[in-house]
Amino acid sequence: MNEFQFEATVWKWQGDGPATWRFVTLPFDLTDEIDELTTGRQGGFGSVRVEVTIGRTTWSTSVFPDSKRKSFVLPVKAPVRKAEGLAEGTEATVRLELAPYA
User: Fold this and answer.
1) What does each C-alpha distance from 96 to 5, 14, 17, 41 come to in angstroms?
2) pTM of the model
3) Is the pLDDT reported for residue 18 higher than 80?
């Protein structure tokens, strides 16, 4: 299994219009490892399917490459933030597992 654990700070997307998306940025070394493990199996926009656990909340999503941050970023949806008491600037312990590929 390809499972990773790391600490990351929740941040708010600063794009056009009202910013409602929140993310955490994966560590650079983890990004490099995931990129190597998933070469040729990445989805649209270079996305990689993952299963994520923060606290007692687990969900399936994708991580996406962010050229500005030179790393993968993980979206943290509102129900997860609410259930785990996460706000912008909050540090989260993230367990991430690469989804199996058929």
Assistant:
1) 6, 24, 30, 17
2) 0.89
3) no
